[in-house]
């Protein structure tokens, strides 16, 4: 009998700890950031962060719908073949569904016209984190003393940065800083960007809204991660840093930490 099946290397599915918080900040009366984490979800542990936009309270509606719809859809995903290809297909389908629902709600309700939301979704696979995003909410990875930005903003200022017309510092204070070029629920169809991060033991992943990154630059964020605080201390430290710098917007943060065990 061939022993090839039993000798094939097994893929280790890491345990993942997740914490999330959406803080109103110091200047806003309502909170348009929404977060959701399902560390024990099947077939994939998942996290969702959304930063809504629109008329009076419409941003709250859009971001809340995004988190609820995406979390439910991805937890209902088929267990048959829970590898990368299936995960990619499920992610795209879930975002298409959520986009259709939010867009329809905006057309139906006058108070919600023009609403939409940025979004970043993370699925934890055995050897990687699969990410989907729209807009300027971001994903970062902390590894070996370095904080690396995984996602690339869909925004007008990012286009200017890419073209060499603006620096990162100029972008953070630009009057166009909140004008995104892709969002969930704004148009009948949406083009989701997928990316991935090869997951190593000890990796930390952060999803965040621009309420954090507009107030705290990447170097300051890296300095906070370098303190190696437990997640339940790091999370409030990040939000406090944004509020201490002005807290001009809502602040959404999700933290994830992989543990592969022995």
Q: Quick one: biggest sheet?
A: 5 strands, antiparallel
The spatial strand order of the largest sheet comes to 1-10-9-6-7
Which series of helices and strands comes N to C?
HEEEHHEEEEHHEEHHHE
Strand content: 25-35%
Q: What is the general shape?
A: globular
Tally the helices: what do you get? Answer: 8
**Helix proportion range:** 25-40%
**Alpha carbon gap, first and last residue:** 30 Å
Radius of gyration, CA atoms, in whole angstroms: 18 Å
Structural class computed from helices and strand pairing: alpha+beta
Poorly predicted runs are: 1-10
Features of this protein?
single chain; 262 residues; alpha+beta; five-stranded antiparallel β-sheet; 8 helices; 10 strands; 33% helix; globular
How are the secondary structure elements laid out?
Layout: H1 4-7, E1 15-23, E2 33-38, E3 46-53, H2 58-75, H3 84-108, E4 116-124, E5 128-134, E6 138-143, E7 146-149, H4 156-162, H5 168-173, E8 193-198, E9 204-208, H6 210-213, H7 218-225, H8 231-244, E10 251-259
Antiparallel strand pairs: 1-10, 2-3, 3-4, 4-5, 5-8, 6-7, 6-9, 9-10
Task: Describe the protein's architecture and organization.
- This protein is α+β, with helices and mostly antiparallel strands.
- 33% of the residues lie in helices and 26% in strands.
- It contains eight helices and ten strands.
- A five-stranded antiparallel β-sheet has the order 1-10-9-6-7. It has a five-stranded antiparallel β-sheet with strand order 2-3-4-5-8, with helices on one face.
- A hairpin with a 3-residue loop joins β4 and β5.
- It is globular and about 50 Å long.
- The two termini are 30 Å apart.
- The relative contact order is 0.20.
- Mean pLDDT is 89; it is low at 1-10.
């Amino acid at each position: 009998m061939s022993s090839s099946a039993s000798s094939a290397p097994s893929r280790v599915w890491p345990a993942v700890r997740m914490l999330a918080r959406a803080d109103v900040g110091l200047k806003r009366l309502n909170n348009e950031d929404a977060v959701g984490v399902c560390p024990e979800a099947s077939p994939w542990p998942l996290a969702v962060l959304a930063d809504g936009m629109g008329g009076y309270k419409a941003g709250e509606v859009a971001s809340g719908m995004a988190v609820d719809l995406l979390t439910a859809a991805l937890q209902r995903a088929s267990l048959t073949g829970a590898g990368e290809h299936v995960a990619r297909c499920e992610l795209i389908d879930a975002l298409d569904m959520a986009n259709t629902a939010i867009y329809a709600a905006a057309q139906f309700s006058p108070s919600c016209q023009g609403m939409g939301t940025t979004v970043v979704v993370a699925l934890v696979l055995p050897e990687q984190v699969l990410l989907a995003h729209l807009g300027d909410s971001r994903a970062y990875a902390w590894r070996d003393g370095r904080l690396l930005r995984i996602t690339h903003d869909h925004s007008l200022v990012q286009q200017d940065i890419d073209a060499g017309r603006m620096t990162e510092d100029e972008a953070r204070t630009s009057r166009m800083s909140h004008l995104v070029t892709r969002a969930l629920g704004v148009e009948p169809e949406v083009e989701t960007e997928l990316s991935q991060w090869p997951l190593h033991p000890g990796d930390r992943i952060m999803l965040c809204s621009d309420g954090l990154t507009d107030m705290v630059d990447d170097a300051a964020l890296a300095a906070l991660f370098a303190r190696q605080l437990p997640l339940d201390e790091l999370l409030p430290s990040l939000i406090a840093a944004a509020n201490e710098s002005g807290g001009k917007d809502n602040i959404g943060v999700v933290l994830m930490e992989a543990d592969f065990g022995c």
